[in-house]
Structure formats: C-alpha cells, structure tokens
Design a protein that fits this description.
Number of strands: 7
CATH superfamily of the largest domain: Jelly Rolls
Oligomer: single chain
Order of helices and strands: EEEEEEEHHHHHHHHHH
C-alpha cells in the first residue's frame, strides 16, 4: 500500500489532510482521539465501521471518532482512493462533542444528501483557503454549523453529554489506558464516588467506562501491531490487557472475529 500526503494544514484546533492511497491489499485506519470528517474526493473504496460495511465513492462524506473500530476492506485498483480529512479535537468549539461521545449505533455515513453535499463543499473550501487564515477559520466554523444539522438528525441516539466531565474523564482514561486502572480510579481522580462517576460516564458517553476502556485498548493494540515486531499477545499486554483470554474475548466482542483473521488484509 502506498500513501501520498498531498498537504497538511493546522489552524487553531482544526487540521486538514488530503491523502491519496494506492493499494493492492486492504489496510487499516487506527483511531485516535480526534473527530474526523472525511470526504471522498477521488476513487472509491469499501470500509467497515463498527461492523457495518459502507461503499464509498467520490462526493460521499462520513464521520469517524475514537470510539469507532474501522478497517478499509478494499480500494479501487484502477483509481485508488483520495480522501480529504478535517480533524477536530474532542470537545472543540465546532460542536464536535456529540459525534465524539455518541452511542454505538451511530451511522457514520451522512444519510441526508443535502447535508452531505454541503459538508463536502465546505471541505473543498477548506482546501481552497488553505493558505488564507481568515477564510480558513470562517469555513471551519461553518463546518461546525453543519455539524449541528447532523446532530439534530441523530438526536434520538446521542447521549446527553456534560462536556467538562467528558473531557476530564476521557483525558484520564486515554492517559492511563495502558496501566491497570478501573472506574474507581477514574472516579477518585475526579473526586466523585464510583457509583456517581459510573452513572455520569454512561449518560454522557453512551457506554460504560469498562466497555470504553476495552474498546480503546483494542485501538491501541491495532496501532501497536502496525508499528511493532511484537506478537499479538505481547501487544495486548503492553496496551493494558491483563490476560490473553481477556484480550481475545474483548477483540471478538468488538470486531466479531479474532485478531489473526482481522489482520489478514492489513
């Protein structure tokens, strides 16, 4: 797989990357803690996100965040794939919060064509104004406005989030995920009782602390496997799993398969 980054821009909290992929085999994207709004600007591909396979073509827009498990399944052999990706940190001022803390049944591909087309046009404008800070900042804010429309479309499956709480809770989890931590440790770090913290976390994030922690550790393992010569089990231990049995069970629950089969095409 060959990837060519066409450009990269950061203005304040927003970064934009355009990448061309040419692949003879499938490859994976490993998550990080940033909301990503991705536009397909050339070629076509299929991607699996949280167990759902999407066929993507030029003009499509989809959303990714740190709570998504995803793997590219195929890329056009003749055209390759060109994506334009705007990345925002969680809890940024562009109303990204609902997408970062959404529940598991969120549909990643924008279903409303008019909203899809507007977001696609705004991302192209970000590319056009890449060297013009004033225009770039303005268009970035417009992306946030469009996110509000998407938020309304998904209102029934978005949790009620306490932004400050989620920022601190996820910050603690991400910083300590490779260590032996529990809901009690996170609650203590935030000066809350474990029962109060547990209820508040699930209400804000949409899944329990332990479920999120397991899922986030899987992301870390996938990232480690792409940049390490360690075995799958060694990577699992390095990323916070205390037993191989616990890791394989969590991996199967999240991806629906075992690590070897999942990684065959990576």
């Amino acid at each position: 797989m060959e990837a060519k980054t066409l450009f990269y821009k950061r203005t304040g909290p927003v970064s934009v990357t355009q990448i061309y992929f040419s692949a003879k085999k499938v490859f994976s994207l490993v998550s990080d803690a940033r909301l990503k709004i991705v536009a397909i600007t050339g070629g076509s591909a299929t991607i699996e996100i949280n167990g759902i396979i999407y066929t993507l073509k030029k003009g499509d827009v989809f959303i990714l965040s740190a709570v998504d498990i995803r793997q590219w399944k195929s890329v056009s052999d003749t055209e390759g794939l060109e994506i334009l990706m705007a990345s925002f940190p969680p809890m940024s001022n562009i109303s990204a919060t609902p997408f970062f803390v959404r529940k598991a049944d969120f549909v990643n591909k924008i279903p409303d064509k008019s909203v899809n087309d507007r977001l696609f046009s705004l991302l192209l404008m970000l590319r056009e104004f890449i060297e013009t800070d004033d225009s770039y900042t303005f268009v970035s804010s417009m992306v946030g406005v469009m996110c509000e429309y998407v938020k309304k479309a998904y209102l029934s499956i978005l949790p009620d989030a306490d932004n400050e709480f989620v920022t601190k809770a996820l910050g603690f989890l991400h910083a300590n995920a490779k260590s032996e931590i529990s809901c009690i440790d996170a609650a203590r770090a935030m000066n809350l009782s474990s029962s109060h913290f547990s209820r508040k976390f699930k209400a804000s994030v949409g899944i329990s602390f332990s479920s999120y922690l397991r899922q986030y550790r899987i992301y870390l393992v996938l990232g480690e496997l792409q940049h390490s010569d360690l075995s799958i089990t060694e990577c699992a231990y390095k990323c916070g799993f205390s037993s191989s049995a616990g890791f394989y069970k969590a991996f199967n629950q999240i991806t629906g398969t075992n690590p070897s089969k999942y990684l065959q095409g990576c």
